[in-house]
Write a structure and sequence with these properties.
two-stranded antiparallel ribbon; 7 helices; 2% strand; transmembrane; transmembrane helix; membrane; DUF2231 domain-containing protein
Length: 166
């Protein structure tokens, strides 16, 4: 994907990732720590995580197109390198979301009677918190590097025109 409505697709698609990764991470942690929440959401959690996962390669693919259409810049290269690392985090969110959903589907009586079920729920909760935190930190790092690449020489720190409040 290259252009959407005359703009590089990456600059539009990146907003999907920036919103969906933290949202998916938050919902995953809530559902992992609160099984009733996971039961109430039903398949919405893994579906949200799947959409999040699908948005990452679309965005990075559009970013690769954009990278070929801008001047060679170390900040752009750094952003691209960091962006390539997002897919494993999104995959982790999806796998854990599917696992938390499957665990939540077990009947409460079966969960209460099985010690292994409790261990599985605790392991899923711990992994969910770790992967969710890692995914959010990674999105922040990628976004910060992208903003620096896009804006590092595109504005003046002092006002170039008089305006209100300057």
């Amino acid at each position: 994907m290259s252009l959407l409505n005359g703009l590089p697709a990456h600059v539009l698609l990146v907003h999907v990732v920036v919103v969906l990764v933290p949202l998916t991470a938050l919902v995953l942690v809530i559902c992992a720590l609160w099984p009733q929440g996971a039961r109430r959401l039903g398949p919405a959690l893994p579906v949200l995580a799947l959409v999040t996962l699908a948005s990452v390669p679309l965005t990075t693919g559009a970013g690769e197109w954009l990278e070929r259409h801008v001047a060679d810049d170390p900040l752009v290269r750094r952003h691209a390198e960091l962006g390539d690392g997002m897919l494993p985090w999104a995959l982790g969110l999806f796998v854990l979301a599917a696992g938390v959903w499957l665990i939540s589907r077990r009947t409460p009586a079966a969960q209460a009677g099985a010690r292994s079920g409790a261990v599985l729920r605790v392991a899923a909760a711990v992994l969910s918190v770790v992967v969710a935190a890692g995914a959010v930190v990674e999105v922040y790092r990628i976004g910060d590097s992208g903003a620096k690449a896009a804006w590092h020489d595109a504005y003046s720190k002092t006002a170039t025109r008089p305006g209100d409040g300057d």
